[in-house]
Amino acid sequence: MPDARAHEARTRRLNDALRRFHVGGRVLLSLGITCLSDNAIASILNAVRTYDGFSEENDPDNLRDFGIIEVGEHTVMFKIDVASAPRSDTADALERVLTIVLADEW
Predict the structure, then answer these.
(1) Is 80 left (phi over 0), alpha (psi -120 to 50) or beta?
(2) What is the pLDDT along the chain (106 residues), one digit of tens a residue?
(3) Hey, how many other C-beta atoms are within 10 angstroms of the C-beta on 63?
(4) How far is CA 103 from CA 18, 19, 95, in A?
(5) Out of 23, 54, 80, 102, which could bridge 32 as a Cys pair, Cβ 3.0 to 4.6 Å?
């Protein structure tokens, strides 16, 4: 299935661009994250940006859309979802959203 593989490769590239460079979608931080110090937030964003721990075990779909990481004293989870863009003129327009939360908020 070349089309499915091409779609998966494109999805990985788009997810990586959002996670690494905050390009191609929105980044949402949970209330718990926003209540942390500026240094802690910067460390968390950097840890998500540089995360490379994807494996068959924790990323079975190979889309690089979810991770759990330890940043200092915090366990952080991130998830990339695709949703309809609310301000789009076309009904099928999609928007990527990277959500970053403290694990105890999940």
Answers:
(1) beta
(2) 568 899 999 999 999 999 999 999 999 999 999 999 999 999 999 999 999 999 999 999 999 999 999 999 999 999 999 987 666 565 556 899 999 999 999 8
(3) 15
(4) 21, 18, 24
(5) 102
